[in-house]
């Protein structure tokens, strides 16, 4: 049985995740070494060493969740502690949180920091997938099948938004929308949810209008269309990102040869790491990242379509949409397609919390894929064998009676 299970793992997905993560580790070193020395006055490999440890921890989490049967996650014995820890973690920010980039998003644990909102993404995916999978028989009963799971979503969204971290809150909401749209509920109920969301979000936006529509955020909205209009102030980040992307050309300047990371491009190893990749490795480096991310997202959708279990299918949809949405926001912001929001690029940007939650999520996705492959390969084979034996047995009986 163990041999059959091991053969059923999606090794193509595992290899792509590993390649992209290792590529990200190399690029974190290249993008951060000048920042480490100039801004933080630490050794050049400071962020590289921390990211290497982050990757090891994420790898351990990946292995654990890849081996843990995903179907057990819909048990209340797992859902209740998970929901409780998520809400406690987000609530603890207001007591022990640390303000970074104008948001109360981090809790310091000794020499390390943790970002609870990153893990809230996975928590929302598991919770909504589990609850809506259980409610399939009455998914279109609005008060009974649709509304109850959304109480948790609204609480998480509110706690993340008031930090304020509107980028992460928006990602959580978009992930939830992808799960809801795939849950099987009808258009009438979806329309009701849209109206309720508008009614709930509008007062929150009015209450927090000074935060939502702050001068800094409005500058991001107005400057992304023409960053060179105010290149020294509101357009500084995007203008330098353009310089990095434009100077890379087809083949790039060479690994480690970026000019913009020498103090010109802020957050070169986090939000703008794709700009450094473009400058150093050109279109080939960017193409590699896009192909890997695209493969992970499309593979997740394929797994969701193949999975006959509603819980597994919704998990795959939620996880693949999380990677796709976050990738689009990061890449779109760095290239000027959408306003900047300060979201890391999955698997590539520096960040322990982001990498750890991705390790957990990818392990779950690989586990769902394993169950799909196992059922397709061996259950169908066993069924065919049983049918053959039954047919053979009935034939022998017929011949004996003749």
TrEMBL record:
Locations listed in the record: Membrane
Transmembrane segments: 12-33, 53-71, 78-96, 150-177, 189-208, 281-302, 314-334, 354-374
Main localization, broad class: membrane
The keyword Cell cycle appears for this protein: yes
Enzyme type, top EC level: transferase
Family designation: Belongs to the SEDS family. FtsW subfamily.
Protein's recorded name: Probable peptidoglycan glycosyltransferase FtsW
Organism: Mesobacillus foraminis
Lineage: Bacteria, Bacillati, Bacillota, Bacilli, Bacillales
């Amino acid at each position: 049985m163990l041999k059959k299970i091991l053969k059923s793992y999606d090794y193509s997905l595992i290899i792509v995740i590993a390649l992209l993560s290792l590529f990200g580790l190399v690029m974190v070193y290249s993008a951060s070494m000048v920042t480490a020395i100039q801004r933080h006055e630490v050794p050049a490999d400071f962020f590289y060493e921390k990211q290497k440890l982050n990757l090891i921890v994420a790898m351990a989490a990946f292995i654990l969740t890849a081996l843990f049967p995903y179907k057990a996650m819909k048990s209340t014995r797992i859902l209740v502690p998970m929901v409780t820890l998520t809400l406690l973690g987000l609530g603890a920010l207001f007591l022990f949180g640390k303000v970074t980039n104008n948001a109360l998003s981090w809790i310091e644990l000794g020499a390390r920091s943790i970002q609870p909102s990153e893990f809230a993404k996975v928590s929302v995916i598991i919770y909504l997938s589990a609850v809506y999978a259980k409610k399939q028989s009455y998914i279109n009963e609005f008060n009974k099948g649709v509304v109850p799971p959304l109480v948790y979503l609204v609480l998480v969204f509110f706690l993340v938004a008031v930090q304020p971290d509107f980028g992460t809150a928006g990602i959580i909401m978009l992930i939830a929308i992808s799960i809801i749209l795939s849950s099987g509920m009808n258009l009438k109920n979806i329309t009701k949810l849209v109206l309720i969301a508008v009614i709930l979000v509008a007062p929150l936006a009015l209450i927090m209008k000074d935060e939502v529509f702050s001068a800094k955020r409005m500058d991001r909205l107005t400057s992304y269309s023409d960053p060179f209009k105010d290149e020294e102030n509101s357009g500084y980040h995007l203008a330098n990102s353009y310089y990095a992307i434009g100077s890379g050309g087809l083949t790039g300047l060479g690994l480690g040869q970026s000019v913009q990371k020498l103090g010109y491009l802020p957050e070169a190893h986090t939000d703008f790491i794709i700009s450094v990749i473009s400058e150093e490795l050109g279109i080939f480096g960017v193409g590699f990242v896009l192909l890997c991310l695209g493969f992970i997202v499309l593979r997740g959708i394929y797994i969701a379509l193949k999975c006959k279990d509603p819980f597994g299918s919704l998990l795959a949809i939620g996880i693949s949409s999380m990677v796709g949405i976050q990738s689009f926001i990061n890449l779109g912001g760095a290239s000027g397609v959408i306003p900047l929001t300060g979201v890391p690029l999955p698997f590539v940007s520096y960040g322990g919390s982001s990498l750890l939650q991705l390790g957990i999520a990818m392990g779950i996705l690989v586990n769902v894929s394993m169950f799909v492959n196992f059922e397709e390969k061996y259950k169908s084979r066993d069924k065919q064998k049983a049918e053959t034996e039954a047919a053979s047995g009935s034939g022998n009986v017929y011949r004996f009676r003749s």
